[in-house]
Design a protein that fits this description.
Elements (H helix, E strand, L loop, with lengths): L23 E12 L2 E12 L3 E5 L6 H9 L6 E6 L2 E2 L5 H4 L2 E3 L11 H11 L4 H14 L15 H14 L4 E5 L7 H17 L4 E6 L2 H7 L2 E6 L2 E6 L1 H6 L4 H8 L2 E7 L8 E7 L2 E7 L8 E6 L5 E2 L23 E11 L3 E8 L5 E7 L10 E5 L5 E5 L4
Parallel strand pairs: 3-8, 3-9, 6-7, 7-8
Antiparallel strand pairs: 1-2, 1-4, 4-5, 9-10, 11-12, 11-14, 12-13, 14-20, 15-19, 16-17, 16-19, 17-18
The chain binds adenosine-5'-diphosphate.
GO molecular function, one term: ATP binding
Pfam families: ABC_tran (PF00005), TOBE_2 (PF08402)
Protein name: ABC transporter ATP-binding protein
Length: 398
């Protein structure tokens, strides 16, 4: 999380409690939202600091948009509280919250010109005309749309419309900007371009708190200081991209964020609280992996390995000739798993293999850099992984 830019009070001169600015621009306290009998959001607690971007990342239907609507005031929580800058706004209307919102489908007023769209929130706030004109100009310049002020939305491309929508959301100088899948209506190349633009825009708005809803992990990884992984109306896990990527606390995050393969295994060592390197048996194969939590011998775990972490053992596939039997573990090296190549896909920068592990009935995804000798479907190979690139996660349901 970004550190607050405000100076701490000098020692010996405590600031009176009433004058202390709250650290969090947005705070959800145990917020639940139901639609009839559907629980769309269940007990979400989340705090977003000033200047911080939090991405809500999860599959469709996991409650991301509902969380955003609860912050914006478009949905009333069935329980829990919503705070902005430390003030409880649970019962306040959306207009009174002064939040900027950008949604997937641009949502510009179709009959209004670009400049009128951007001016809309300012007029509603009865800002003097000259100030409105100046603010609209500045906002359109910020998103690179100053040459389009007099056009109607339908005269713009999707990407341009979304730029105008962002300018409109920022015109009221909100302290909080909510974005709900803002790039998902755009085609792939435009999406990548707009993602870079959003990143640049973020740098120009150092004090705004942003909450960014997406199901696309690359958007979350590019923009967010922290990622909140959502699943079945609940917060599954929250952390920096680095934390979630390299040390996921659960199988769902390992699979959803890192695309990891998960091998069922049984612990053979004691790992104390706080974590260490653990030893496990995955089928008949001995493996060592980072264990970020306490494990006891006999405990069921999963070994998470991301596609890029796998390597082909030297000499593979030829070296695998002796592995073709029953997959029994005698004499196997740690973290060496024999498998049969099921498919090979060329992906420009390298090859993606699907490999069926022998003796484990697991199919794993392996991303190899461009190489001269690419295995073919049906080949036997030996996969290896460095212990520090394999991580144990609790054996929860997926
Ligand atoms: P996400 O943004 O992660 O795709 P949503 O927050 O939109 O998920 O939806 C969460 C759940 O709430 C889903 O099961 C969805 O079908 C349901 N839901 C969302 N909006 C409504 C609504 N207006 N009426 C009824 N059910 C809804």
């Amino acid at each position: 999380m970004k550190k607050s830019r405000r100076a701490a009070p000098a020692a010996g001169h405590p600031t009176p409690a009433a004058a202390v600015e709250p650290e969090n621009a947005v705070e959800l306290r145990d917020v639940s939202v139901s639609y009839g009998t559907t629980v769309a959001l269940s007990g979400l607690s989340l705090a977003v600091a000033r200047g911080e971007t939090v991405a809500l990342l999860g599959p469709s239907g996991s409650g991301k948009s509902t969380a955003l609507k609860a912050i914006a005031g478009f949905e009333r929580p069935s329980s829990g509280r919503v705070l902005l800058d430390g003030v409880d706004v649970t019962d306040a209307s959306p207009a009174r919250r002064g939040i900027g919102v950008v949604v997937q489908q641009y949502a510009l007023f179709p009959h209004m010109r670009v400049d009128a769209n951007v001016a809309y929130g300012l007029k509603a706030r009865r800002m003097p005309k000259a100030e409105i004109a100046a603010r609209v100009k500045a906002m359109l310049e910020m998103v690179g749309m100053e040459g389009h002020a007099h056009k109607l939305p339908r005269q713009l491309s999707g990407g341009q419309q979304q730029r105008v929508a962002i300018a409109r959301a920022l015109a009221i100088r909100p302290q909080v900007l909510l974005l709900d899948e803002p790039l998902s209506a755009l085609d792939a190349s435009l999406r990548a371009e707009m993602l870079l633009e959003l990143q640049a825009l973020r740098a120009e708005l150092p004090d705004i708190a942003m909450v960014y809803v997406t199901h696309d992990q690359s958007e979350a990884l590019t923009l967010a200081d922290r990622i909140a992984v959502m699943r079945n109306a609940r917060l599954e896990e929250i952390g920096t991209a680095e934390q979630l990527y390299s040390r996921p606390a659960g199988a769902f995050t390992a699979k959803f964020l890192g695309g990891a393969s998960l091998l069922p295994a049984i612990s053979t060592t004691v790992v104390p609280d706080g974590g260490a390197m653990g030893s496990v048996l995955a089928g008949a194969h001995r493996m060592k992996a980072v264990a970020p939590f306490a494990v006891n011998p006999g405990g069921r775990v999963l070994v998470a390995v991301r596609p890029h972490a796998w390597k082909l053992a030297a000499g593979s596939p030829a070296a695998a000739a002796g592995w073709a039997g029953d997959g029994a573990g005698d004499g196997y090296t740690v973290n060496s798993l024999p498998g049969r190549v099921e498919s090979v896909q060329w992906r420009g920068a390298g090859h993606r293999l699907q490999v069926d592990l022998i003796g484990l009935s697991e199919r794993v995804t392996v991303d190899l850099p461009a190489m001269s000798a690419v295995p073919a479907p049906g080949d036997l190979v030996v996969l290896t992984v460095e212990p520090q690139h394999a991580v144990l996660v609790p054996a929860g349901e997926l």
